[in-house]
Amino acid sequence: MQRTRLATAVAAAVLALIPATATADAAYPDPQPITGQQIVHDPTVIRLKSGGYVAYSTGGVIGARTSEDRRQWDDAGNAFATPPSWWYRYSDTADPWAPDISYRDGRYWLYYAVSSWGTNHSAVGVATSPTGLPGTWTDHGTAFSSEKTDPWNAIDPAVITAEGRLWMTFGSYWTGIRMVELDPRTGKAIPGAEVRHLATRPDAPYAVEGPYLVRHGRYYYLFASYDTCCAGVNSTYKIRVGRSASVTGPYVDSTGKPLLEGGGDLLLAGHGRYAGPGGESVFQDRGQDWLAYHYYDATDNGTPKLGLNKVTWDSGWPELR
After folding, report:
1. Percent of the chain scored above 70 by pLDDT?
2. Which regions in the chain score pLDDT beneath 70?
3. Distance of alpha carbon 42 from its chain centroid, rounded?
4. Reported pTM
5. How many helices (H) and strands (E) does the chain have?
6. For 125-148, what is each residue's pLDDT tens digit?
7. Predicted pLDDT of residue 283
């Protein structure tokens, strides 16, 4: 982000009264240059304990990419050779969406959604692996689900360990972003656990989805994708963020507006060839936070591609480089 250099002490005093925000400047940062297999949608990335990186994404049987240096990415097939049979209960084509990879208790955990476009008859599945690499995953079935009678949609999962407990954020349209507590032993939702509400929009169709939580300092930061996905160069996706001193909220933006009332500081929006950035996640590499997301390349017929940007926290809010 661009930081304004103050010309006078008077101007500095005036601007000091304005809260720091996560809003990017009009240009927005371009993603870091990458090569190789760049096509990706809803990416989740992790640096492996064995070295190198793996990215999983929507498409295929959870499509996989690997990299040795975070710049050159190679096609690595799919997380699974064939879809687990239970997927067909939620999708006629067994189509998995928006995975999330993490490392906990000596193994890798992969969460993902199975659903069909325009319905909240959806489920989040969970799998584990000793290495995190494609072809090594053992599926453990449904971690959480939603039905048409529910006011939420169980897709776009992201998991965080916080305050000694395991939590999963999820949600897309319907009433927005939700959270449920998981059993750390099974990785599945605790039976009867409260489904908490973290963010929404004032009006239907409540176009906010793809949540991701990050702890930095004394705050938890909620990233989410707002507006229209999956329309190529016509996508209006953008990434907004709010924060809370508690993992369960309430989350507010830098002006104090609650995310449950449509708040959220704008972090990244479309610019130039990079249309509709969203489907984001955050990963850490040698102490540096990185934002991973997809954008639609206007110079390549709107093909979805992997975007990576450094995340800095100098203002107390995430900023992109």
Report:
1. 92
2. 1-26
3. 7
4. 0.91
5. 1, 21
6. 999 999 999 999 999 999 999 999
7. 98
Between CA 229 and CA 227 the distance in angstroms is: 7
- DSSP one-letter string for 93-142: T--EEEEEEEEETTEEEEEEEE--TT---EEEEEEEESS--TT--EEEEE
What pLDDT, on the 0 to 100 scale, is given for residue 26?
52
**Distance from C-alpha of 22 to C-alpha of 36, rounded to nearest angstrom:** 31
CATH class of 19-320: mainly beta
3 state DSSP class of 9: helix
What order of strands is seen across the sheet that includes strand 219-226? 208-216, 219-226, 238-244, 265-268
Contact 238, 207 (CB under 8 A): no
Amino acid at 267: L
List the structure tokens of 313. 């926290």
Amino acid at 1: M
Domain borders along the chain are 19-320
Residue 174's contacts (CB-CB under 8 Å, 6 or more residues apart) are: 120, 150, 151, 152, 153, 206
Residues belonging to the active site: 42, 209
Helical spans, DSSP H, in the chain: 9-15
Rounded Cα distance between 1 and 204, Å, is: 32
Q: Measured between alpha carbons, how far is 116 from 4 in angstroms, rounded to an integer?
A: 46
C-alpha 72/C-alpha 7 separation (Å) is 43
